[in-house]
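User: Okay, second chain of the day. Same drill as before: sequence in, structure tokens out.
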Amino acid sequence: MLPAPLAAASRLLAILLATGGPVLVSSACGSTGTMTIINVDGANVAVVPWAGGPTLTVNCQTTRVVDTSAAPGQPWHITVRGLANHHLPL
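Assistant: Same drill. Structure tokens below.
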């Protein structure tokens, strides 16, 4: 079993990866121009949705929506770090 912060971050990463597919596909097909990030449970994290992108704080049980109109072309390198220790969860 993973420690709570690591388990929470891995769930967030899984959600990001699961929602990243539709974002990748739909961005070329008239998407809404947003990315939704959900922290289902666990530690607060800082998410950078692409290199040079904004740093977003996503607290436990909250959702953040990011405007992707200023994002570079895909693929995006999404970074998730714990707020308390600044470590990558995986």
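The chain has one helix and five strands.

User: Thanks, on to the next one.
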